Amino acid sequence: MRDRTDSSQAAFHRRWGHLRRARVRALAWLLDSPDLLDVAAPQWQGRIASTGPVTPAVERWLRQLDQDPAPLDAALGPRVYTRLGLYAEKLMAFYFQEQGRLVAHGLQIRASRNDTVGEFDFLLEAGADALEHIEFATKFYLLQGVEAGQEFDALVGPNLADSLGAKMRKIFGRQLALGAHPAAQPLLPRPVTLARALVKGWLFYPAGSWPALSGIGAGHCRGFWCALGELDAFDADAFLVLPKLQWLAPFRAGHAEWLMNRAQLHAELEARFETNPSPVLVAVVRAAPGVVEEVERGFIVPDDWRARAQARTAEEGRAEDASQNIIC
């Protein structure tokens, strides 16, 4: 494991430990977390956006929002969010709106009534005669195996539904081209002159390894993953299972009723995996009087997850090779 004093969690707690409300903390993390992708890496062709450093004015605004969250609560509305991506997108829409930059959010483009071409996540002000298209994603990927040229395909979602490679091919191959589609033109008040992807998230590595990957931001948020059978090797003994809407910012609260030791966590996950093979994100926490604070996080996966992940990556590689052959 990494040095916990030099972790993403430690940095976040130092700067944002005064924020108490989960929604405001999540927004602060979206704005201030390190870039997941290396903006300057040549493979991204200058098409990766960055939130940049949080200014003192935005820092004061977040502090005020934590004291009076009514504007944020009104923007999110009464609905109960079950999709983390949608929740993060609504938080960013609120921020862009408050900054006076938002022109449109979630604008669907249809070629006909039954033919949806795509959707603009965000259209932002880019001058009197231009718009910027931001394609936004919040992703959590686990690295399983690395072969030269296939690093991004080896970063797979916990449920094996996608990979970083597949996601970026979709963004670059289709979504960022939406502004040029004929069906979009009648709905755009100004031309889209810049289209970029803004990708936030966490990457998780086999316990004890922290490889450097080309194209990935050097300071990105990271954690570990291990199979359930490997859990006993950890020296930590205070854990929380993180609900999905708390996957963004490192956890911090005055107390946590669902705190578990390692034996309790093992029993809980063993029972869960019997009916649901989905990996579970847990936080290793430090509990002190008046505060429970995340110091590290990781996915615990069923013992057969490695084999299923390797099979999925191989299948995706074959499909990619076939598509390249077709193109050629």
UniProtKB/TrEMBL annotation:
A family per Pfam: DUF1853
Q: Which domain of life is it from?
A: Bacteria
The protein's name is DUF1853 family protein
| The organism of origin for this protein | Massilia jejuensis
